[in-house]
Amino acid sequence: MNKHIVFAICGCLFFVTGFSQTKNVEELLNEIEQNNTELKGYQSFIESKQLENKSTNNLPDPQLSGYYMPFGDNITGDYTEYEISQSFEFPSVYGARGKWNESKSQQLVSAYSIKRQEVLLQAKGILLELVFLQKQKTIETERKIQSKQVFDQIKELFAKEQVGILDLNKAKIAWIQEQFVVKQIESDIQIQMSKLKTLNGNIKGEDFAWVQFDFNSGALGFIDANRYNESTADDPRLTFGTVLIEGNKGSIRLYEDGKITIQNLGEKEIVHSYTFERKNFSGDCVYVTQKHFTECLQTGSPFETEVSQYLKNIAVQEAIYESNAKDTPTLL
Asked: How much is the pLDDT for 16?
């Protein structure tokens, strides 16, 4: 299972060029250290400070002065004088300053070492988690195959009337459960990275977010949300933004005016016909939602959205805040 960890939002923390069976954790940590922008930036900062400290321990630049005094009483006429001066301190001062600069350099190197340990420790935790997930998927996949084989055998015995329907159903349930476990591992979000900001100083919450999702299935997701800068839409509160879903066969788009289009690869986009009203808040979605729930409670009909599904969104939201607080990708 190849994994790519990229955190390049307002100061990168991680860059994993490849995650596979052929590379061990130490090799990946070396790649992270070489490509991590924060560590590389800190190294450049150390080099610049070392050069700055070294420059302060050199002789000052020579000073050139000139004097020109016309209309004087000199016999030779106008008086002109040039002066070049060079100042310096006692040798012991340069020696002491050199030792002080060396001490400052060592402090910078120690600070870099601490930062390096923090970054690599976080990265190692993520890599070990990915290794665990990979092994878990392998084990559960093997169990799924074995449970299918058992079900097929029980099915044959049932056809021969050597076992009862109860044994057949038990085998089938065991097989279905293993399928569900594997599917859950493949569909759950594995890497989630986010960066939140508050652009409006008059509010306490965030009004800007970049969130990147990396799914174990190979799908990627990205949210670019900003409620600080104004939208150019006639009714910016209708959809609160745009949506683009790209797949192997084409794209689906939601525009700010509520229009939905479908575009197959190599073809022009086609407007998807559906009904919505441009009234009240966001197309009156709150009223319609409450009306749906009320009707389902009265008739006993199933809801279009289940609480268990909504709780997954809450878990994702909490993981986004955790990722932002720790400034590191979060596994979910």
From this structure: 33
